[in-house]
Write a structure and sequence with these properties.
Largest sheet of chain A: 6 strands, mixed
Distance between the termini of chain B: 31 Å
Largest interface: A-B, 27 and 31 residues
Structural class of chain A: mainly beta
Helix content of chain B: under 10%
Largest sheet of chain B: 7 strands, mixed
Radius of gyration of chain A: 14 Å
Oligomer: heterodimer
Shape of chain A: globular
Order of helices and strands of chain A: EEEEEEEEEEE
Strand content of chain A: over 45%
Chain lengths: ~110, ~120
C-alpha cells in the first residue's frame, strides 16, 4: 500500500536540534523528500535522499534513512525561529507515464524562545 | 521562486460561479500536476498531465475540469463548486516520468474559498 505517516506537532527550544520523523510503507520508492511549507506559502523542496543512501547532510540539515524499517528522519541543527513551518515527508513512486509523490500529513514545527 | 507560477493567489467564489485557475512553468518540464491541500488532510493528487496528455484522474468530481494546452500551461476550470472544495490548490511540474529521477517543483498555490 501507499502510506506516509508523520506526527502532527513538534515543539523545540530555539538553538536546540529538531528531529522530525516519518514512516512509509511502499518499499519500491527510490527517492524520499522533505518539503517545507511556511505560513501562507506553497511547498518548498528542502532536501531529498536516494534510497540507496543512509545519510545526507546539507548545512544544518541531516537526513537519515533506515530502509529496513522504512523510517526517514530530518534533523535541523541549531533551530531558529525562521524554521517554524510545516514539514512534509514524501516518497516518489512511478505510475502510468509520470511520477507520483505520496505525502505525509505534515509535522508542524514550532520554536520556543 | 521555483519556476512555477500560479494565478490568482486568492479566489473567492460563489457556488454558481465559473472560474479558472492558471499554472505556468518556466522549467522546460513535460509533466504537470494539480494537487488539493485541505486542512488536516494529506496532500491529494487530482490530475496529472504528461506531454499534454492526461495520464491520471484521481476520482475527482466533474465540477473540476483540467486543461493542458501545452507543456508549459495548466488550467483548472471550476464550476458549481461546494463549500467543502475550499482549499489550497497547488500546481507542480516535473521533468519526465523517469522512476527515481523525477522531482516535482511546486507553485505557491491558489487559496480558494467557496461561499
Amino acid at each position: 500500500g501507499e502510506d506516509v505517516e508523520q506526527s502532527l506537532f513538534l515543539s523545540v527550544r530555539e538553538g536546540d536540534s529538531s528531529v522530525i520523523n516519518c514512516t512509509y510503507t511502499d518499499s519500491s520508492s527510490t527517492y524520499l523528500y522533505w518539503y517545507k511549507q511556511e505560513p501562507g506559502a506553497g511547498l518548498q523542496l528542502l532536501t531529498y535522499i536516494f534510497s540507496n543512501m543512509d545519510m545526507k547532510q546539507d548545512q544544518r540539515l541531516t537526513v537519515l534513512l533506515n530502509k529496513k524499517d522504512k523510517h526517514l528522519s530530518l534533523r535541523i541543527a541549531d533551530t531558529q525561529t525562521g524554521d517554524s513551518a510545516i514539514y512534509f515527508c514524501a516518497e516518489n513512486l512511478q505510475y502510468s507515464s509520470a511520477s507520483k509523490i505520496i505525502f505525509g500529513s505534515g509535522t508542524r514545527l514550532s520554536i520556543r524562545p | 521562486e521555483t519556476g512555477v507560477t500560479q494565478t490568482p493567489r486568492h479566489l473567492v467564489m460563489g457556488m454558481t460561479n465559473k472560474k479558472s485557475l492558471k499554472c505556468e512553468q518556466h522549467l522546460g518540464h513535460n509533466a504537470m500536476y494539480w494537487y488539493k491541500q485541505s486542512a488536516k488532510k494529506p496532500l491529494e493528487l487530482m490530475f496529472v498531465y504528461n506531454f499534454k496528455e492526461q495520464t491520471e484522474n484521481n476520482s475527482v468530481p466533474s465540477r473540476f475540469s483540467p486543461e493542458c494546452p501545452n507543456s508549459s500551461h495548466l488550467f483548472l476550470h471550476l464550476h458549481t463548486l461546494q463549500p467543502e472544495d475550499s482549499a489550497l490548490y497547488l500546481c507542480a511540474s516535473s521533468l519526465t516520468g523517469e522512476l527515481g529521477k523525477d522531482t516535482q517543483y511546486f507553485g505557491p498555490g491558489t487559496r480558494l474559498t467557496v461561499l
